[in-house]
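Continuing the series of single-chain predictions for the mutant panel. This is the parent chain; the variants come on the following pages.
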Amino acid sequence: MTDSKHIFDDLDRRLIAQLRADGRAPVSKLATVLGVSRTTVQSRLDRLLNSGALLGFTVRVREDHADNTIRAVMMIEVVGKSTSQVIRRLRGLSELHRLHTTNGKWDLVAELQTDSLEGFDRVLREVRSIDGISNSETSLLLTTV
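Parent structure:
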């Protein structure tokens, strides 16, 4: 059962920081770095996973490492109170990498990834056809510096 409130102590925060740096680190290495026993690390991991605070482990890949990947940032302006509906539709796009709410002129910022310019063009058309989107501006990401 997941706990809706996650209260992290210092050890939890340090453990999560270590996992962000190396999600494949063995429990024994985490225990050594954190200065606690392997049993303590394992019980903390189990608690964080069971509570839903930690969703899993993943591999981090440099964003610009994948060959032939077209990446873009799209700023989206939403009409009236249709933000929730627009978010639901955007989340249905497999090319949507991340979606953020924001303030200012733009209501949403979408990070998109496709494997071709044709795919990118198709995604732009799909996004622009979503009811509730009044305007958008898209920039291709060229090089990560």
